[in-house]
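Input structure tokens:
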């Protein structure tokens, strides 16, 4: 099974035009802002803490958070063993924190997975921070072809960052 974890709805829209096959999971969190520790409680307590924080001014959005944010991440916990998981994240801290969180969730799912990092292709150094936003749908298959395998050492290192964000299950 091929899974693509995409950084946000803008990339998801572009991705849908690319012709790349597989299922998608959309990362819609903002883990560089607000509380990220629920003192060792379960994942549902973590989601509740995040929803409370992110919807302080708009409590009517809490249901959206659980349906469109938390449920997307929870899909990572039930992937079949041997799945090919492609993480489409950019270079900025926002994306890196979300990617570390995803890696930590994947590590906790205990199944053997094949995990890859998909970087945006950079045509000009001055556009490095444009990320996937500076690309066309036709560029995404090229990004996929140039993917990099996460080694066990790198996964372990990245999960050390991620474990500070997410609770144990």
């Amino acid at each position: 099974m091929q899974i693509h974890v995409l950084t946000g709805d803008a990339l998801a829209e572009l991705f849908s035009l690319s012709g790349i096959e597989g299922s998608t999971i959309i990362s819609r969190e903002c883990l560089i802002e607000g509380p990220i520790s629920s003192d060792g409680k379960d994942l549902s307590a973590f989601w509740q803490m995040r929803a409370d924080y992110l919807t302080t001014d708009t409590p009517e959005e809490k249901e959206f958070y659980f349906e469109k944010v938390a449920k997307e991440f929870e899909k990572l916990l039930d992937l079949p063993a041997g799945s090919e998981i492609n993480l489409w994240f950019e270079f900025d801290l926002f994306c890196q924190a979300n990617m570390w969180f995803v890696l930590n969730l994947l590590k906790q799912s205990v199944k053997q997975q094949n995990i890859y990092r998909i970087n945006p292709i950079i045509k000009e150094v001055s556009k490095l921070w444009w990320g996937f936003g500076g690309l066309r749908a036709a560029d995404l298959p090229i990004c996929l072809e140039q993917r990099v395998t996460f080694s066990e050492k790198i996964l372990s290192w990245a999960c050390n960052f991620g474990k500070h964000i997410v609770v144990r299950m």
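The CA atoms of residues 102 and 134 lie 24 Å apart. The first helix runs from residue 9 to 16.
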